[in-house]
Amino acid sequence: MISPKTVPEEFIHFIWENRLFHNKSLKTQSGEKVEIIQTGRRNTNAGPDFFNAQVKIDDTLWAGNIEIHKKASDWEKHNHSSNKAYENVILHVVEEADKSTFRMNGTQIPTLVITWPEQFTRNYRKLLDSKSWIACQEQFHQVDPVLLRLGFNRLMIERLENKTGEIEKRLIENKNNWNETFYQMLARMFGFKVNAVPFELLAKAVPMQILAKHKSNLFQLEALLFGTSGLLHEELIGDEYFIKLRDEYSFLYKKYNLKTVEPHLWKFMRLRPVNFPTIRIAQLAHLIQKSQGLFSKIIETDNLPGLKNLFEVKASDYWDSHYRFNKNTTRSQPKELGETSINTLIINVVAPFLFVYGEKQNQEHLKNRALDFLEQLPAEKNSIVKNWEVLGIQPRSAFETQALIELKTHYCEPKKCLNCQIGNKLVKTTP
Fold it and tell me: Helix, strand or coil for residue 35?
């Protein structure tokens, strides 16, 4: 057997759960015959590692919990001997029995040492030691891609549930105001990673309740957003539009006692001009003016074309010939929010919000609608997706690319290969 130090405890959990251990002539350290009827159900929370197991020790059938450690002495090291949650442990499964273990009442817990084929350990160590883009990159071709696709639905649900926590946190901060929370997260996504933080700060500095008072006036919305962004303070003089915006903001600033975002936070370098924060802010202003009760409209919209239509906005006419204030461009063209950007907003903001709202309001059809929208949207194009394509995976929708992103970020990067269908299969492979 390879040294116990070569694998983490979670690997022994994996061996136990999948019954990969040598199962013949099992005996406790006291010499009692052991027959494993049911290994139990994995516990991912505090307490024993496996619930509802069934084990026959000599002629007695026991039902209860299983605790697993690398060494038997870990029982005391983890203070289980003084924890009532471990009183119903019927079997202590270990790789090395260096000590007897006891319950709080002083009764001894049967200890079982398990072993398994060394090949499984070697397979797992190879994954852990890999320096490739994903741990299984060299062996990836050995697994049927259908196995990966079968896990897409679970991965997609996990991704939406992971985003649930962030949305719930913001809801608490906003006193359960769905509209304000949606507006803040939508604004953040208008920054498209590079300017996500200043956009979020902008949304918090100019709450929706203030913007709602000026929804009928696009110019005032622009003054509020551009003024609070700090971008109107970059220059002392400027063209007519710039001066009018600054004058309007001067009045609104005093009226609402606003605080501006530090202008140095906005990034223009290495961005395509159509993605400049000035263009995005102007587009956001139009979206706010156009879509009164946007979140309510999203909930009411049950088809993708109608949903996309809500986000078909353009920057005001000034921006037809500008990308930054006071700097004319040689070519004049409308700065519309493109289809790719709209898709990105739906994937990263709308779908998660629909899912969470459906969960909170017990409206299953909204959760299903969120998944349907993702299945209808085209596959995303980014570095993670491109690398999966190199490995032969051709995603057919945003649903699948989101699942692949979840797999890469939450399984491949932390090397949770034992929890991945592909890694699971490769570890159990024998020559």
Answer: strand
